[in-house]
Structures are given as C-alpha cells and as structure tokens.
C-alpha cells in the first residue's frame, strides 16, 4: 500500500501545475475559484490549500479555512433572544478561533476531491492529520485554535468516516441542503409550471405577475464593478439579518468572482425603474447549478415577492441550460421546497480542543444551534 502524504499551501502561486487536473470534478476546488478566495476572502478568514500525494503523485486536493470570529461585526441580528445572547458570549470567549476542513462559505460536499479511488480509512486519517498540522502552524503564531470542524458530508460518507478516525468526534446535523433534481421531461419553463398542482401553479402566476415591472438582466464584469457598492449593500442587508453568521464577504468578492470564472459565474440583477433592487448569483459546476449569495431591498422583496421569483428564475435557468440538479443550500427551507427542492441531510464533525468542553460538546452544540421549524411542501401533481 502506498503511503499517503500531504502538503499545505497558503498561496495559489505555490500550487502544483496539475492541481486543476485533479480537481476537475469540482469547480469549488479549482484554482479560478481558489483565486477568488485568495483575492476577496472575508476579512476574518484565511484559506489553505492541501495537496494529497501517493508516491509523490498528486492524487487529491482539499481546502481548509481559519476563521477569527473575534473580528466579526455581528453573529446575526435577526433573532433577539436569550439563547442568541448566550451563544454570542460562548463563541466570543470559547470559540473565537475556528478551523474548518472544508468550505464554510457554501453548502455541499466540497471539502476534497480525488483523481483516483481512496479508501475512507485513509481519507479520515489525512483529514485529521491536516487539522493537527494546521493547529501546530497556528500555535507557532501564538493562536490557539478552539474549535475544529469538518464539513459537509452526505450521510453515507459520514457513516463511513465514523468507522475510522472520526469515531470519537461529535457528528452534528444542522439545516438540510435543499437540492432540486430537475426532471428530464422539463425542456422549458412551461413544462416545469405545468407539472405543478393547481395551488402551486397559482402561486407561480401570482408571484410572476408581481414582478412584471422588474427587469432581470445578467451583468457583465464592467457592470458589476460599476454597481459594486450597491450590490454589497443589498448582500449585506440580507446577510446581517440571517440567524447566524461566521463571516461577511469582502466588498470586491463578486467582481473578483466574475473576473476569475467569467461565464462560469452568473450575477443576475433585478432592476425597478433603472434602479438595482436585488441580485442572485450562480456557479456553473459541471452538470450541477450551484446557487451562491444574493441580496435585495427588503421593502421591494416584500411587495414584489422578489425572493420567490429569484428561486423560480434560477430554476428556469437550470432547465433552459440542461443542468441535472440545482443546489439551493440551507436556509429558507419551506419556500425552497415550494418550488420543488427537497431536503438532503448532511453531517459535519466538530471537536473542541479543551477536553472538558469537548466531553460535553454534543449537549452544548444542541443548546446553541438555532432551531428551525418548517413544513416541507410538495408542489407537484
């Protein structure tokens, strides 16, 4: 059996030439996207790029992120309650320095990819060893990592990892990933709408009518740069009103994304009387359409059912361009299910480096994680 080793890089310029050949299956691990992180990561985030080798051959790539939560302006302002206050106190005092093996900015199994089959036992050991190496790296800089999290894994992969090095690591489930498997029978948006039951077809018509006065337009790099400040304001309004945040994007994030990924990244603007009042973003990831960040004017969103129309428009884009599925991510579960997305549970693993806290990490986590009650909708006939 070949010995599996790894090397951690902190700069894109240091990466092996064949990095993208190994990462070909996942755009979130290819250098154009990694350059977006390098050029416009959140101010409290530092990224690391991990090459995994067998006999000096690069056979896998992975991503790690360090977050300094002490630099965060807000953990989220939507929920004003005692649990939120306690959670914020705990994070500031006992979880200020967090290491993620994976990508904390997106939902999905995007931690690593391999160009050849690797058994789960080896993968689990490599992930744990990478975390240990980064903990030592930060210790030399007088930074004590409090929490280590490994995210996200589909249930079957999490079960496999639990058989090996993750056996004693606390497994957690938060909100599911909303995934929309697009039917092969849908060739046009009319096919999609026709498949709804009457209730949800009426919902579509009502929402569509509300947005008749709004122009939807895909923005070029030049247009994104011209609107950058306003785009960020719309994003920031939505982000700060989320129930929980661990980062805020840099102001140049969207222009950097467009510059690096070009036609693979779509930023669609919503205009009312020539004024930008909302936007959504998409990443074209092979046969998968990945929804990314969005923003809107809350007053217009309420009046025009803007968010629901964004979901419909992203779905129609996926159908028109023959994608097999759309990853809608977490949050807004009920409304996403009303347009056809279904919940897929994902797991993460988390451990605290204080042994006493780690002993009770399961109980602490369930107390601090915001509860989400929602009803799944079934919109199709």
CATH class of the largest domain: Alpha Beta
- What is the overall shape? globular
The topology string of helices and strands comes to EHHEEHEEHEHEEHHEHHHEEEHHEHEEHH
Mean of residue pLDDT values: 92
Q: What fraction, in percent, of the residue positions are helical?
A: 25-40%
Give the total of beta strands. 15
Distance between the termini: 53 Å
Provide keyphrases for this structure.
381 residues, alpha+beta, Aminopeptidase, eight-stranded mixed sheet, 15 helices, 37% helix
Write a structural description.
This protein has 381 residues and is α+β, with helices and mostly antiparallel strands. The chain folds into two domains: 4-175 and 345-368, Aminopeptidase (3-Layer(aba) Sandwich); 178-343, Aminopeptidase (3-Layer(aba) Sandwich), CATH 3.40.630. Helices cover 37% and strands 26% of the residues. It has 15 helices and 15 strands. It has helices at 19-22, 31-40, 82-94, 120-139, 155-161, 189-194, 198-210, 221-226, 228-240, 253-261, 298-304, 306-320, 333-338, 355-359, 361-368; strands spanning 4-9, 45-54, 57-68, 97-101, 112-114, 147-154, 170-173, 177-181, 215-218, 265-272, 275-285, 288-296, 325-329, 342-344, 346-352. The strands form two sheets. Strands 1, 2, 3, 4, 5, 6, 7 and 15 form an eight-stranded mixed beta sheet that branches. It has a seven-stranded mixed beta sheet with strand order 9-10-11-12-13-8-14, sandwiched between helices. It is globular, with a radius of gyration of 21 Å. The chain starts with a strand and ends in a 13-residue tail after the last helix. Residues 75-79 have low confidence and may be disordered.
